[in-house]
Design goal:
FAD/NAD(P)-binding domain; 8-stranded mixed β-sheet; 20 strands; globular; single chain; 2 domains; alpha+beta; binds flavin-adenine dinucleotide
């Protein structure tokens, strides 16, 4: 794309910050608007896949993040009470050097914020965006300010925002309680695996190694406990000790973690949402990216990685096409297929692990689990969790 453009990005999340850094490096004037008075990460641990890591590499951030995260070789889930394995995905079944990277969200966030600031991105905080005009690109802030004269507005506001008018999404019945805890030195958890335990699909808990925030910071894990959204209030009102007993009954080894929960507030609830925007591009100057385009439950651990791929794709499209409208069409061509594929797969997989059905977990345990051991299933499962199905990196010129 010739010349410098005026670009407003709504949302200082993973996708918004990565895009801001790429575009500012290419010489565009980039402003990032966020509703919060201070830029901060929301949530707990994250699993980065090779897709997201390839984009972080383009920003020069991969080596640092790789060094502080924990490499995960395997996703390993047992059904209770039989303790039969019903999830066993090994990354190396797809490629010998493949791994997932468990990280703290704050690490990725700080690195992206640093890259954006260094590239000259202007952060406009405490500035919730109320609406945007895609025809004559401009935005209206909730505080009454009007920001006009834009060439492009990017909605990177995540899964939950008032700025989702074409949303045909649904709040999923389940979400999870999350917490980051120090890695127990004498614990029985496997540092190279994301481990889960299930009772049918109505109870699920897991432990993900999530690395360090900084070189001298303590090593951590991310603990999660699946819970129906309509039960969150009851959980908060009930005794924490009663819940701890349920958690220990599902996975006795987590008893050593329970002592660290002194109050309900030590766990953060996140409700999951699934939506795919019908209009990722609107008019001649508005585009959606990351969860603002396609939100899903984190069951396959793809959302942050997809947001990073979107950011790279949009920056490449802006480089390739002289006109903004053409760049946006190019962006959709680069990303649409992969987005649709993973939205469908996540939609299908989520109720198998989180839901009230008795039939789906039964099929999972007695049909899918045995079949998943037979070639080519182990290879395909590894390709799926690494985000590689649909060859997104090849399409984007990444390795
Ligand atoms: C519990 C949980 C676990 C997850 N685990 C994983 C995982 O392991 N791997 C993975 O890849 N993904 C995971 N995800 C998904 C991942 O977090 C998201 O897909 C990713 O953060 C999306 O990035 P984003 O940039 O689109 O939006 P976000 O990171 O959500 O950022 C959106 C930003 O927009 C701002 N904003 C919203 N509305 C406005 C407004 N009107 N005006 C101004 N600013 C606004 C918000 O303040 C926020 O800063 C998980 C999600 C959850 C909830």
């Amino acid at each position: 794309m010739s010349g410098s453009r005026e670009i407003a990005i709504v949302g200082a999340g993973i996708g918004g910050l990565a895009l801001a850094a790429f575009l500012a490096r290419d010489g565009h004037r980039v402003r990032v608007f966020d509703q919060f008075p201070e830029a901060k990460p929301i949530g707990s641990g994250l699993m980065l896949q090779q897709t997201g890591l390839a984009v972080l590499e383009q920003l020069g951030l991969r080596a640092e993040i790789d060094a502080l995260g924990t490499r995960i070789a395997r996703l390993w889930g047992l059904t209770v009470p039989s303790l039969r394995p019903v999830l066993d995905v090994r990354y190396t079944k797809w490629q010998p050097d493949l791994y997932g990277l468990g990280v703290q969200r704050g690490l990725v966030f700080e690195q992206l914020l640093g890259a954006a600031s260094k590239a000259g991105v202007e952060m406009v905080l405490d500035s919730a965006v109320a609406s945007a005009n895609p025809a004559d690109p401009s935005i209206q802030l909730e505080n009454g300010d009007h920001v006009a004269g834009m060439d492009l507005i990017v909605f990177a506001h995540g899964a939950r925002s008032s700025l989702t008018p074409d949303d045909r999404g649904v709040d999923l019945p389940y979400g999870a309680l999350w917490a980051t805890l120090p890695w127990p030195e004498n614990g029985s958890f496997d540092k190279s695996a994301l481990e889960q335990r299930y009772r049918a699909a109505h109870q699920m808990t897991g432990v993900m190694p999530s690395g360090r925030l900084a070189k001298n910071a303590p090593e951590t894990l991310t603990y999660f406990w699946s819970i129906r959204a309509d039960q969150e209030a009851n959980w908060r009102a009930a005794s924490l000790d009663q819940w701890k007993q349920d958690a220990i009954a599902l996975w006795p080894e987590t008893e050593q973690l329970m002592a660290q929960f002194q109050s309900h507030d030590d766990l953060t609830f996140a409700r999951y949402r699934h939506h795919t925007s019908r209009h990722p591009v609107v008019g001649r100057g508005l585009v959606r990216l990351g969860d603002a385009w396609h939100a899903a439950s984190p069951q396959l651990g793809q959302g942050a990685n997809m947001a990073l791929l979107d950011a790279w794709a949009l920056s490449q499209a802006m480089r390739a096409e002289p006109r903004v409208e053409d760049a946006l069409r190019h962006y959709l061509r680069l990303r649409r297929y992969h987005v649709q594929l993973y939205q469908i797969m996540t939609w299908l997989f989520t109720p198998v692990y989180q839901g009230d059905s008795r039939v789906l977990p039964w099929l999972r345990d007695w049909l899918a689990a045995p079949l998943s051991k037979i070639w080519p299933a182990p290879t395909l499962l590894a390709a799926m969790v690494s985000g590689s199905l649909g060859a997104p990196l090849k399409r984007l010129g990444l390795r």
